[in-house]
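re: that chain from earlier
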Amino acid sequence: MSDIHVDDFFKDGAKVLSQLYSVFPRKHSVYVEDICGPEEPDDFGVRSQRHLACFATLVWLGEEGYLRFEDVIRQEAIDQAVLTARCFTLLSTPLAPGAAEPSQHLPESVRAEQSSTIHKIRDALRDRSSPALRGVMVDLMTRMRH
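^ sequence. v structure.
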């Protein structure tokens, strides 16, 4: 059984990368609420553990070289974020060898797009498949390290 916080990390990270890929190369503010959903602080202004974990994911992605951002907006967002060149390239290319390939009956341009890492991430998000999302995110993280 997987740890829920790790599944949330993969899901949040995937959503952030997908959001930034869709506006690349423009800089974009990424709000925690847009990634993990709205929530209100408690009576003392303290955010939930889920909100704080999502914000930590945003910062971690920057610290590890997946994206750059200029500043944080309290614990609400990262401001002026953009994918790094390395991350953009890896998202645009196919998964590691052995991953499922699109049908050979499709046009080359469609096959190329459907085999890209970002396409696999978006498929896993759409299907709400934690195992598929974990697999594609671990593959991306492994390739980022090399």
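The two ends are 29 Å apart (CA to CA).
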